[in-house]
Write a structure and sequence with these properties.
Layout: H1 4-18, E1 23-28, E2 49-55, E3 58-63, E4 66-71, E5 76-81, E6 96-106, E7 109-116, E8 124-128, H2 135-138, H3 151-158, H4 165-170, H5 180-190, H6 203-224, H7 232-239, E9 258-261, E10 266-269, H8 271-274, H9 283-289
Antiparallel strand pairs: 1-6, 2-3, 3-4, 4-8, 5-7, 6-7, 9-10
Helix pairs in contact: 1-6, 5-6
Family: Belongs to the FPG family.
Protein name: Endonuclease VIII
Cofactor: Zn(2+)
C-alpha cells in the first residue's frame, strides 16, 4: 500500500507534470471506484490543474473549483502515460479503473491511469468542492511531517492510548499517512516492541519514537524525490530494513527478522533490537496449532 512517502512523491511528480495543464476527458472505467456522484467526475473536464497535494495517504488534484481526491488503498496505483489511445477505454476485467486524459497532450504528458490489481477492490476516487468532504480526510489526525507536529503533540496523542504501538501508529485518526510498512520501520528505528502499550512509554522512549517518526519518513521522502511514478514501488522495497524481510538478517545487529501474522496483514521486527531478545508469539500460527 502506498504510504505517506510514496504519496508525497506522487504528488510532487504530478505537480510537475499537471499544473497549468487542462483536463480533456475523464473516463470512469470501473464505476465502483467512484465514491461521490455530485458533481460527477466528468465535471473536471475542461478545468485547468492548479495544484496537486497530499492529505495523509490521499492524493488531491485541484482543477478549477473542484478536487479529484484519490486513495490508492492496498493494490491501487497511478500510472503516468506518455501516450493514450484516441479510443475511450472499455470497461472490462482488467486493472484499469479510471483514466484522466489531458486536453493538450505533449510528448511527455498525455495523462494518467488509476489501476487496481487483485479481487479486493478498495481504490477510492472522489470529486468534491472541498477535500474535507471526504470522510477519510475529515477523520485524519495530524501530519507527522508538519512543522507544528512536535514531541509534545505526540505525547498528547499517546497519553491516553491503551493500545499497542503498532496499532496506534497505523491509525489514521491518530497520525496521518503511516501504514503497515513504515510503522514497522519506525518501531525498528526506535528500538521499541510493536506490542508495547503506547501510554506506557517513558520520556526517553517518547523522544526516541518522535525522532524515529520524523527521520524514517523524511529519509523515505528524500529517497523518492524526483523519481517517476513507475519507479516508486521498487524504491520503497529497497529502502525497507525490516518490513517484508522476515527470515533475513537485521541490518543493524544481524539477528533474524521475525514476523507476527494476523488475518489480513503481518508485522516484522528484530528481537534483539526491539524486544530484548524475546520472540513474539505469531497469533495466527498459535491458533492453527491448537
Amino acid at each position: 500500500m502506498p504510504e505517506l512517502p510514496e504519496v508525497e512523491a506522487l504528488s510532487a511528480f504530478l505537480a510537475e507534470h499537471l499544473v497549468g495543464r487542462q483536463i480533456g476527458r475523464v473516463y470512469a472505467v470501473a464505476v465502483n471506484v467512484l465514491k461521490t456522484y455530485d458533481p460527477p467526475v466528468t465535471a473536471l473536464q475542461g478545468c485547468t490543474v492548479s495544484a496537486v497535494g497530499r492529505r495523509g495517504k490521499f492524493l488531491v488534484v485541484t482543477a478549477g473549483d473542484l478536487h479529484l481526491v484519490v486513495h490508492l488503498a492496498r493494490a491501487g496505483w497511478l500510472r503516468w502515460q506518455q501516450k493514450l489511445s484516441a479510443e475511450p477505454p472499455r470497461p472490462g476485467k482488467g486493472p484499469l479503473a479510471l483514466r484522466v486524459a489531458l486536453a493538450d497532450p505533449s510528448p511527455d504528458a498525455a495523462g494518467f491511469d488509476l489501476t487496481e490489481a487483485g479481487t479486493q477492490k478498495r481504490l477510492a476516487v472522489y470529486c468534491v468542492a472541498d477535500p474535507a468532504e471526504v470522510p477519510g480526510i475529515a477523520r485524519l489526525g495530524p501530519d507527522p511531517l508538519a512543522a507544528d507536529f512536535t514531541e509534545e503533540s505526540l505525547a498528547a496523542l499517546l497519553r491516553a492510548e491503551k493500545r499497542q504501538l503498532k496499532g496506534v501508529l497505523r491509525d489514521q485518526s491518530v497520525l496521518a499517512g503511516i501504514g503497515n510498512a513504515y510503522s514497522d520501520e519506525i518501531l525498528h528505528a526506535a528500538k521499541l516492541s510493536p506490542f508495547k502499550l503506547a501510554a506506557k512509554l517513558t520520556g526517553t522512549e517518547l523522544a526516541t519514537l518522535y525522532g524515529a517518526i520524523g527521520a524514517t519518513l523524511r529519509e523515505a521522502v528524500e529517497r523518492s524525490r524526483g523519481l517517476a511514478a513507475g519507479e516508486l514501488k521498487a524504491e520503497k522495497k529497497t529502502g525497507l530494513r525490516v518490513h517484508g524481510r522476515a527470515g533475513l538478517p537485521c541490518p543493524v545487529c544481524g539477528d533474524t527478522i521475525r514476523e507476527v501474522s494476523f488475518a489480513d496483514s503481518a508485522l516484522q521486527y528484530c528481537p534483539t533490537c526491539q524486544t530484548g531478545g524475546k520472540v513474539l508469539a505469531d497469533r495466527r500460527m498459535s491458533r492453527l496449532l491448537k
